[in-house]
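Format notes (please read before filing issues)

Several people have asked whether sequences and structure tokens are stored in separate files. They are not. Every record keeps both together, in the order shown below: the sequence lines, then the token lines. Line labels are part of the format and must not be stripped during preprocessing.
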Amino acid sequence: MIVGLGIDIVHVNRMRHWLDNPALMERFFHPAEIEAVRQRGDTAALTLAARFAAKEAFGKALGTGLAGMKLRDIQVVNNHNGKPDMLLFGDALASLHRVGGRHVHLSLTHERENAVAVVVIED
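Then the structure lines:
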């Protein structure tokens, strides 16, 4: 059964200056995400925007927003085929369980100026 659905869009230009601001990166992204983004070269801002949109979409799917959790406790990863997935830690994981969720489904898309994420929480 679907427990929650969230969607978010992020303008890529908003993320470009974050790449040069280590404090912002460390505040909002898991260390492994930061490393993955930095390896993307010219598409780093797109990747960053998609991951930030995923975190926001997760909060919307919870129905409670992201208050009380650290965004770096929400990690977006890609499997061996490139499919995005979400790993949760700390208060983010506790929030998932609190709403009765056990599985998180994630879809990302982006183009030159925008990145979009959709999150479905399932019990």
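For reference, the curators noted about this record: Helices lie at 12-16, 22-28, 31-38, 44-62, 90-98. The mean pLDDT is 95.
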